[in-house]
Design a protein that fits this description.
By secondary structure, this protein is an alpha+beta fold. It contains five helices and seven strands. The strands form three sheets. It has a three-stranded antiparallel sheet. The chain has a two-stranded antiparallel ribbon with strand order 2-3. A two-stranded antiparallel sheet has the order 6-7.
Length: 204
């Protein structure tokens, strides 16, 4: 499965190219995207995503994966001498940064749909993803902290508003109950007469 040339071109223009001239970002169908991984006896191509869906891939240079010495030390398998995550990516490699799917409600059941990449995604969603990924780890932490605090503030505001709404509803209900009680009283001649007699007996 392939993305339309128009969408590919728009993504490359928005994401730029690396120093090898390849796109920094590209779309891939999960069933066709694999990485060379050790199976314990040899290297084999494994899917990078088990779901059947479109992926947004980002190219990362060798420095992203650490030094070759660190890679080898962390991935070595003995006694085969193979590396769990495959050979060190000296020319960098692509990684999955997003699966393209959306939740939809059908009846009472939530299901996922897997739309194909389009220009709307590239123009509206991709810049947000790209700009977030371009942040440093510290900047990402600050941004996520800020969003979390804003979410907490909104939750507190909504909770407070719901309490005020509830109090308003409760007050209205109390007024209605009191009004109905007065109307029942006025429709009872005996109780009205008794109340008037009690009023006359009170000393001035």
């Amino acid at each position: 499965m392939k993305v339309s040339p128009e969408v590919e071109k728009a993504l490359t223009q928005a994401g730029g190219r690396n120093f090898y001239g390849k796109p920094n970002y590209r779309f891939a169908w999960s069933g066709q995207e694999t990485q060379l991984i050790s199976n314990g006896k040899s290297y084999e191509h494994f899917r990078v995503c088990a779901e059947d869906c479109w992926l947004l891939m980002k190219w990362e240079g060798p420095e992203f994966w650490g030094s070759e010495e660190e890679w080898n030390a962390n991935n070595i398998e003995l006694p085969s001498g193979l590396y769990t995550a495959g050979p060190y990516p000296r020319q960098g490699r692509y990684r999955v940064v997003r699966t393209l799917k959306k939740a939809v409600i059908k009846g009472d059941v939530m299901e996922f749909e897997y739309p194909a990449p389009d220009l709307v995604f590239v123009r509206e969603m991709f810049p947000l993803i790209r700009d977030f990924l371009d942040l440093t780890t510290e900047e990402k932490s600050k941004l996520l902290f800020t969003r979390e605090e804003e979410a907490k503030a909104k939750l507190a505001h909504d909770f407070g508003a719901s309490r005020e709404n509830y109090r308003g509803i409760a007050t209205a209900k109390q007024v209605q109950d009191r009004t109905e009680a007065i109307e029942r009283f006025l429709h009872d001649p005996v109780r009205v007469k008794q109340a008037l007699e009690l009023t006359k007996r009170r000393p001035i």
